[in-house]
Amino acid sequence: MAQLNVTAEQITNGASSSPRKPAPTFAEFIPHVVDAVTPGTRRAYSTYWQRILEQWGHRRLDEPTPTEIQQFAQRTRESAARRRNSRGGGAAAEHLIAALRCIYHYARNDRLIDADDNPAARVRKPRRQRSLREALPERAVAQIITVASETGNDPDLDLLILRFHLETACRQGGALQARRRDLDTEQCLILLREKGQTERWQPISPTLAAALATHFSERGDGNPASQILRYRNGRPVGKRRYDNLWNRIRSYLPWADSHQVSAHWLRHTTLTWVERHFGQSIAHRYAGHADPSRQATISVYTKATLREVAQALAALTGEPHPLADGDPMTVMLTARLGEQAQLPAATGDEPDGTPHS
Prior knowledge:
Elements: H1 8-13, H2 26-36, H3 39-56, H4 66-79, H5 90-109, H6 138-150, H7 155-168, H8 172-176, E1 183-184, E2 189-194, E3 198-203, H9 206-219, H10 239-252, H11 254-259, H12 263-278, H13 280-287, H14 299-302, H15 306-317, H16 328-340
Antiparallel strand pairs: 1-2, 2-3
Protein name: Site-specific integrase
Organism: Actinoplanes flavus
InterPro entries: CB, DNA_brk_join_enz, Integrase-like_cat_sf, Integrase_catalytic, Integrase_recombinase_N, Tyrosine_recombinase_XerCD
Protein backbone atom coordinates (compact mmCIF):
# COMPACT_ATOMS: atom_id res chain seq x y z
CA MET A 1 0.00 0.00 0.00
CA ALA A 2 2.88 2.35 0.75
CA GLN A 3 4.49 1.64 -2.60
CA LEU A 4 1.18 2.32 -4.36
CA ASN A 5 0.65 5.45 -2.24
CA VAL A 6 -2.76 4.13 -1.16
CA THR A 7 -4.20 4.38 2.33
CA ALA A 8 -6.77 2.15 4.00
CA GLU A 9 -9.21 5.04 4.10
CA GLN A 10 -8.97 5.46 0.34
CA ILE A 11 -9.71 1.77 -0.23
CA THR A 12 -12.63 1.84 2.18
CA ASN A 13 -14.13 4.98 0.71
CA GLY A 14 -13.40 4.02 -2.90
CA ALA A 15 -11.38 7.19 -3.40
CA SER A 16 -8.63 5.35 -5.27
CA SER A 17 -10.85 4.69 -8.26
CA SER A 18 -11.28 7.37 -10.88
CA PRO A 19 -14.71 8.97 -10.90
CA ARG A 20 -17.05 7.71 -13.63
CA LYS A 21 -18.00 10.15 -16.33
CA PRO A 22 -21.62 11.30 -16.27
CA ALA A 23 -23.83 9.04 -18.37
CA PRO A 24 -24.86 10.54 -21.72
CA THR A 25 -28.42 11.52 -22.47
CA PHE A 26 -30.65 9.38 -24.66
CA ALA A 27 -30.42 12.04 -27.37
CA GLU A 28 -26.63 11.80 -27.30
CA PHE A 29 -26.35 8.00 -27.19
CA ILE A 30 -29.17 6.64 -29.39
CA PRO A 31 -27.53 7.81 -32.67
CA HIS A 32 -24.47 5.70 -31.77
CA VAL A 33 -26.70 2.68 -31.20
CA VAL A 34 -28.48 3.25 -34.53
CA ASP A 35 -25.13 3.15 -36.33
CA ALA A 36 -24.05 -0.03 -34.51
CA VAL A 37 -27.06 -2.32 -35.01
CA THR A 38 -28.00 -4.38 -38.05
CA PRO A 39 -30.51 -3.03 -40.61
CA GLY A 40 -33.14 -5.47 -39.35
CA THR A 41 -32.77 -4.30 -35.75
CA ARG A 42 -32.84 -0.70 -36.92
CA ARG A 43 -36.15 -1.25 -38.73
CA ALA A 44 -37.67 -3.05 -35.75
CA TYR A 45 -36.75 -0.47 -33.11
CA SER A 46 -36.53 2.86 -34.97
CA THR A 47 -40.14 3.81 -34.16
CA TYR A 48 -39.61 3.12 -30.47
CA TRP A 49 -36.25 4.89 -30.31
CA GLN A 50 -37.94 7.93 -31.79
CA ARG A 51 -40.59 7.74 -29.09
CA ILE A 52 -37.89 7.48 -26.42
CA LEU A 53 -36.18 10.55 -27.86
CA GLU A 54 -39.42 12.51 -27.73
CA GLN A 55 -40.15 11.55 -24.12
CA TRP A 56 -36.71 11.13 -22.55
CA GLY A 57 -34.23 12.65 -25.01
CA HIS A 58 -32.98 15.15 -22.42
CA ARG A 59 -32.57 12.57 -19.64
CA ARG A 60 -29.37 10.69 -18.83
CA LEU A 61 -29.28 6.91 -19.24
CA ASP A 62 -28.89 6.35 -15.51
CA GLU A 63 -31.95 8.42 -14.54
CA PRO A 64 -35.04 6.31 -15.44
CA THR A 65 -36.16 3.73 -12.91
CA PRO A 66 -37.72 0.34 -13.64
CA THR A 67 -41.06 1.73 -12.51
CA GLU A 68 -40.82 4.61 -14.97
CA ILE A 69 -39.99 2.20 -17.78
CA GLN A 70 -42.97 0.06 -16.84
CA GLN A 71 -45.19 3.14 -16.91
CA PHE A 72 -43.75 4.13 -20.29
CA ALA A 73 -44.48 0.64 -21.65
CA GLN A 74 -48.05 0.81 -20.35
CA ARG A 75 -48.64 4.17 -22.05
CA THR A 76 -47.23 2.70 -25.26
CA ARG A 77 -49.61 -0.25 -24.98
CA GLU A 78 -52.62 2.01 -24.47
CA SER A 79 -51.72 4.33 -27.34
CA ALA A 80 -50.91 1.56 -29.84
CA ALA A 81 -52.81 1.77 -33.12
CA ARG A 82 -55.90 -0.42 -33.21
CA ARG A 83 -55.81 -2.51 -36.36
CA ARG A 84 -57.71 -5.57 -37.49
CA ASN A 85 -54.92 -7.84 -36.31
CA SER A 86 -53.91 -5.90 -33.17
CA ARG A 87 -54.04 -7.75 -29.86
CA GLY A 88 -54.28 -5.14 -27.15
CA GLY A 89 -50.99 -3.36 -27.74
CA GLY A 90 -48.89 -6.02 -26.03
CA ALA A 91 -46.45 -6.20 -28.93
CA ALA A 92 -45.88 -2.43 -28.80
CA ALA A 93 -45.05 -2.57 -25.08
CA GLU A 94 -42.76 -5.55 -25.66
CA HIS A 95 -40.90 -3.79 -28.46
CA LEU A 96 -40.43 -0.63 -26.39
CA ILE A 97 -38.81 -2.60 -23.57
CA ALA A 98 -36.66 -4.49 -26.09
CA ALA A 99 -35.59 -1.20 -27.68
CA LEU A 100 -34.54 0.13 -24.27
CA ARG A 101 -32.67 -3.06 -23.47
CA CYS A 102 -30.78 -2.68 -26.73
CA ILE A 103 -29.72 0.84 -25.74
CA TYR A 104 -28.56 -0.28 -22.31
CA HIS A 105 -26.74 -3.27 -23.79
CA TYR A 106 -24.45 -0.96 -25.75
CA ALA A 107 -24.15 1.45 -22.82
CA ARG A 108 -23.01 -1.40 -20.58
CA ASN A 109 -20.49 -2.58 -23.19
CA ASP A 110 -19.07 0.95 -23.36
CA ARG A 111 -18.91 1.00 -19.55
CA LEU A 112 -21.19 4.00 -19.37
CA ILE A 113 -23.31 2.17 -16.80
CA ASP A 114 -22.77 -0.86 -14.56
CA ALA A 115 -24.63 -4.08 -15.25
CA ASP A 116 -26.49 -3.66 -11.95
CA ASP A 117 -27.64 -0.18 -13.02
CA ASN A 118 -29.56 -1.41 -16.06
CA PRO A 119 -33.20 -0.55 -15.25
CA ALA A 120 -34.62 -2.15 -18.41
CA ALA A 121 -33.29 -5.56 -17.38
CA ARG A 122 -35.48 -5.46 -14.28
CA VAL A 123 -38.70 -4.85 -16.22
CA ARG A 124 -40.63 -7.91 -17.37
CA LYS A 125 -41.84 -7.97 -20.94
CA PRO A 126 -45.54 -8.65 -21.51
CA ARG A 127 -46.24 -12.31 -22.11
CA ARG A 128 -46.27 -12.94 -25.84
CA GLN A 129 -49.57 -14.31 -27.05
CA ARG A 130 -49.77 -17.43 -29.15
CA SER A 131 -49.74 -16.72 -32.88
CA LEU A 132 -53.09 -17.00 -34.64
CA ARG A 133 -51.43 -18.05 -37.90
CA GLU A 134 -51.75 -21.68 -38.95
CA ALA A 135 -51.47 -23.90 -42.00
CA LEU A 136 -54.00 -23.19 -44.74
CA PRO A 137 -56.01 -26.04 -46.25
CA GLU A 138 -55.44 -26.93 -49.88
CA ARG A 139 -58.74 -25.34 -50.92
CA ALA A 140 -57.73 -22.00 -49.37
CA VAL A 141 -54.35 -22.02 -51.12
CA ALA A 142 -56.09 -22.75 -54.42
CA GLN A 143 -58.41 -19.76 -53.91
CA ILE A 144 -55.44 -17.47 -53.18
CA ILE A 145 -53.69 -18.63 -56.34
CA THR A 146 -56.87 -18.11 -58.38
CA VAL A 147 -57.27 -14.52 -57.19
CA ALA A 148 -53.60 -13.75 -57.88
CA SER A 149 -53.81 -15.21 -61.39
CA GLU A 150 -57.03 -13.43 -62.39
CA THR A 151 -56.60 -9.97 -60.84
CA GLY A 152 -53.96 -7.27 -60.58
CA ASN A 153 -51.73 -5.60 -63.14
CA ASP A 154 -49.00 -8.27 -63.13
CA PRO A 155 -50.34 -11.79 -62.43
CA ASP A 156 -47.10 -13.42 -63.60
CA LEU A 157 -45.14 -11.61 -60.90
CA ASP A 158 -47.74 -12.37 -58.20
CA LEU A 159 -47.83 -16.07 -59.05
CA LEU A 160 -44.03 -16.22 -59.02
CA ILE A 161 -43.99 -14.63 -55.56
CA LEU A 162 -46.59 -17.08 -54.24
CA ARG A 163 -44.77 -20.12 -55.63
CA PHE A 164 -41.47 -18.82 -54.24
CA HIS A 165 -42.96 -18.74 -50.73
CA LEU A 166 -44.87 -22.00 -51.02
CA GLU A 167 -41.77 -23.93 -52.12
CA THR A 168 -39.15 -22.35 -49.87
CA ALA A 169 -41.29 -21.42 -46.84
CA CYS A 170 -39.09 -18.33 -46.64
CA ARG A 171 -39.90 -15.07 -44.94
CA GLN A 172 -40.71 -11.96 -46.95
CA GLY A 173 -37.18 -10.63 -46.54
CA GLY A 174 -35.72 -13.83 -47.95
CA ALA A 175 -37.59 -13.41 -51.24
CA LEU A 176 -36.88 -9.68 -51.54
CA GLN A 177 -33.15 -10.14 -50.90
CA ALA A 178 -32.66 -12.96 -53.43
CA ARG A 179 -30.14 -11.94 -56.10
CA ARG A 180 -29.49 -13.49 -59.50
CA ARG A 181 -26.13 -14.84 -58.37
CA ASP A 182 -27.95 -16.59 -55.50
CA LEU A 183 -29.81 -18.79 -58.00
CA ASP A 184 -28.18 -22.14 -58.86
CA THR A 185 -30.20 -23.44 -61.80
CA GLU A 186 -28.05 -26.56 -62.20
CA GLN A 187 -28.65 -27.91 -58.69
CA CYS A 188 -31.99 -26.07 -58.30
CA LEU A 189 -31.00 -24.11 -55.19
CA ILE A 190 -31.58 -20.55 -54.01
CA LEU A 191 -29.50 -18.78 -51.36
CA LEU A 192 -31.82 -17.19 -48.81
CA ARG A 193 -30.76 -14.32 -46.55
CA GLU A 194 -33.14 -13.79 -43.68
CA LYS A 195 -33.39 -12.28 -40.21
CA GLY A 196 -30.45 -12.57 -37.88
CA GLN A 197 -28.12 -12.23 -40.89
CA THR A 198 -28.53 -15.95 -41.56
CA GLU A 199 -27.87 -17.51 -44.96
CA ARG A 200 -28.91 -20.92 -46.25
CA TRP A 201 -29.19 -22.80 -49.53
CA GLN A 202 -32.78 -23.88 -50.09
CA PRO A 203 -33.87 -26.43 -52.71
CA ILE A 204 -36.43 -25.28 -55.27
CA SER A 205 -38.13 -27.18 -58.07
CA PRO A 206 -36.68 -27.15 -61.59
CA THR A 207 -39.82 -25.31 -62.70
CA LEU A 208 -39.31 -22.50 -60.20
CA ALA A 209 -35.57 -22.30 -60.90
CA ALA A 210 -36.24 -21.90 -64.62
CA ALA A 211 -39.04 -19.39 -64.00
CA LEU A 212 -36.82 -17.21 -61.81
CA ALA A 213 -34.00 -17.28 -64.36
CA THR A 214 -36.39 -16.35 -67.18
CA HIS A 215 -38.02 -13.64 -65.06
CA PHE A 216 -34.67 -11.97 -64.43
CA SER A 217 -33.47 -12.33 -68.02
CA GLU A 218 -36.62 -10.54 -69.22
CA ARG A 219 -36.86 -7.88 -66.51
CA GLY A 220 -33.43 -7.63 -64.88
CA ASP A 221 -30.48 -5.40 -65.66
CA GLY A 222 -28.02 -8.21 -66.31
CA ASN A 223 -26.08 -7.59 -63.10
CA PRO A 224 -25.70 -10.85 -61.12
CA ALA A 225 -25.76 -8.85 -57.87
CA SER A 226 -29.20 -7.39 -58.66
CA GLN A 227 -32.47 -8.49 -57.10
CA ILE A 228 -34.38 -11.20 -58.98
CA LEU A 229 -38.00 -10.16 -58.42
CA ARG A 230 -38.86 -7.13 -60.57
CA TYR A 231 -41.71 -5.20 -62.11
CA ARG A 232 -42.20 -5.10 -65.87
CA ASN A 233 -40.34 -1.78 -66.04
CA GLY A 234 -37.29 -3.38 -64.41
CA ARG A 235 -37.73 -1.76 -61.01
CA PRO A 236 -37.00 -4.10 -58.05
CA VAL A 237 -40.01 -5.34 -56.10
CA GLY A 238 -40.38 -4.02 -52.54
CA LYS A 239 -42.67 -4.49 -49.56
CA ARG A 240 -45.39 -2.40 -51.19
CA ARG A 241 -45.99 -5.13 -53.78
CA TYR A 242 -46.65 -7.59 -50.97
CA ASP A 243 -49.05 -5.16 -49.28
CA ASN A 244 -50.97 -4.57 -52.51
CA LEU A 245 -51.06 -8.28 -53.35
CA TRP A 246 -52.47 -9.38 -50.00
CA ASN A 247 -54.85 -6.44 -49.73
CA ARG A 248 -56.25 -7.48 -53.11
CA ILE A 249 -56.50 -11.14 -52.10
CA ARG A 250 -58.28 -10.21 -48.88
CA SER A 251 -60.70 -7.97 -50.78
CA TYR A 252 -61.82 -10.98 -52.87
CA LEU A 253 -61.74 -13.60 -50.09
CA PRO A 254 -63.75 -12.62 -46.97
CA TRP A 255 -62.25 -15.43 -44.89
CA ALA A 256 -58.74 -14.19 -45.69
CA ASP A 257 -59.76 -10.69 -44.65
CA SER A 258 -61.24 -11.93 -41.36
CA HIS A 259 -58.02 -13.71 -40.43
CA GLN A 260 -55.68 -11.12 -41.99
CA VAL A 261 -53.90 -13.75 -44.07
CA SER A 262 -50.46 -12.75 -45.37
CA ALA A 263 -47.39 -14.33 -46.94
CA HIS A 264 -46.29 -15.66 -43.55
CA TRP A 265 -49.32 -17.98 -43.56
CA LEU A 266 -47.75 -19.75 -46.55
CA ARG A 267 -44.65 -20.41 -44.43
CA HIS A 268 -46.87 -22.05 -41.80
CA THR A 269 -48.63 -24.06 -44.51
CA THR A 270 -45.49 -25.50 -46.10
CA LEU A 271 -43.65 -26.22 -42.85
CA THR A 272 -46.68 -27.95 -41.35
CA TRP A 273 -46.92 -30.21 -44.39
CA VAL A 274 -43.21 -31.03 -44.22
CA GLU A 275 -43.37 -31.77 -40.49
CA ARG A 276 -46.39 -34.07 -40.87
CA HIS A 277 -44.83 -36.07 -43.71
CA PHE A 278 -41.08 -35.95 -43.00
CA GLY A 279 -40.72 -35.20 -39.29
CA GLN A 280 -39.58 -32.35 -37.10
CA SER A 281 -35.87 -32.54 -37.90
CA ILE A 282 -36.39 -32.01 -41.62
CA ALA A 283 -39.03 -29.33 -40.99
CA HIS A 284 -36.55 -27.55 -38.73
CA ARG A 285 -33.92 -27.52 -41.49
CA TYR A 286 -36.52 -26.59 -44.10
CA ALA A 287 -37.52 -23.53 -42.01
CA GLY A 288 -33.94 -22.35 -41.62
CA HIS A 289 -34.05 -22.29 -37.83
CA ALA A 290 -30.51 -21.99 -36.53
CA ASP A 291 -31.05 -21.41 -32.79
CA PRO A 292 -29.72 -24.53 -30.99
CA SER A 293 -31.75 -23.69 -27.88
CA ARG A 294 -34.92 -24.48 -29.86
CA GLN A 295 -33.74 -28.02 -30.62
CA ALA A 296 -33.60 -31.16 -28.56
CA THR A 297 -30.16 -32.49 -27.65
CA ILE A 298 -30.57 -35.46 -30.00
CA SER A 299 -30.87 -33.07 -32.94
CA VAL A 300 -27.14 -32.38 -32.67
CA TYR A 301 -26.65 -35.89 -34.04
CA THR A 302 -29.75 -36.18 -36.23
CA LYS A 303 -29.89 -32.82 -37.99
CA ALA A 304 -31.38 -33.04 -41.45
CA THR A 305 -29.30 -32.81 -44.59
CA LEU A 306 -29.83 -30.71 -47.68
CA ARG A 307 -30.64 -33.90 -49.60
CA GLU A 308 -33.48 -34.68 -47.19
CA VAL A 309 -34.89 -31.19 -47.62
CA ALA A 310 -34.73 -31.71 -51.39
CA GLN A 311 -36.59 -35.01 -51.00
CA ALA A 312 -39.32 -33.25 -49.01
CA LEU A 313 -39.56 -30.56 -51.67
CA ALA A 314 -39.78 -33.18 -54.43
CA ALA A 315 -42.70 -34.82 -52.63
CA LEU A 316 -44.35 -31.45 -52.06
CA THR A 317 -44.12 -30.29 -55.68
CA GLY A 318 -44.32 -33.65 -57.42
CA GLU A 319 -41.15 -32.84 -59.39
CA PRO A 320 -37.85 -34.73 -59.27
CA HIS A 321 -34.99 -32.75 -57.76
CA PRO A 322 -31.29 -33.12 -58.70
CA LEU A 323 -30.28 -33.57 -55.05
CA ALA A 324 -33.11 -35.92 -54.07
CA ASP A 325 -32.04 -39.04 -56.00
CA GLY A 326 -31.87 -41.99 -53.62
CA ASP A 327 -30.89 -42.33 -49.99
CA PRO A 328 -27.10 -41.78 -49.70
CA MET A 329 -26.74 -44.30 -46.85
CA THR A 330 -28.59 -46.99 -48.81
CA VAL A 331 -26.50 -46.33 -51.89
CA MET A 332 -23.28 -46.48 -49.91
CA LEU A 333 -24.16 -49.68 -48.08
CA THR A 334 -25.31 -51.38 -51.26
CA ALA A 335 -22.11 -50.45 -53.10
CA ARG A 336 -19.64 -51.30 -50.34
CA LEU A 337 -21.28 -54.32 -48.75
CA GLY A 338 -23.06 -55.78 -51.74
CA GLU A 339 -20.24 -55.49 -54.27
CA GLN A 340 -16.99 -55.34 -52.31
CA ALA A 341 -17.93 -57.92 -49.66
CA GLN A 342 -19.85 -60.05 -52.19
CA LEU A 343 -22.73 -60.96 -49.92
CA PRO A 344 -24.03 -64.54 -50.28
CA ALA A 345 -27.16 -65.29 -52.22
CA ALA A 346 -30.53 -65.37 -50.47
CA THR A 347 -30.40 -69.19 -50.09
CA GLY A 348 -29.01 -68.88 -46.57
CA ASP A 349 -25.77 -70.77 -47.42
CA GLU A 350 -22.23 -69.55 -46.92
CA PRO A 351 -20.02 -69.03 -50.01
CA ASP A 352 -18.36 -72.42 -49.45
CA GLY A 353 -21.70 -74.23 -49.38
CA THR A 354 -21.91 -74.72 -45.59
CA PRO A 355 -25.19 -73.84 -43.88
CA HIS A 356 -25.48 -70.24 -42.77
CA SER A 357 -25.31 -69.91 -38.99
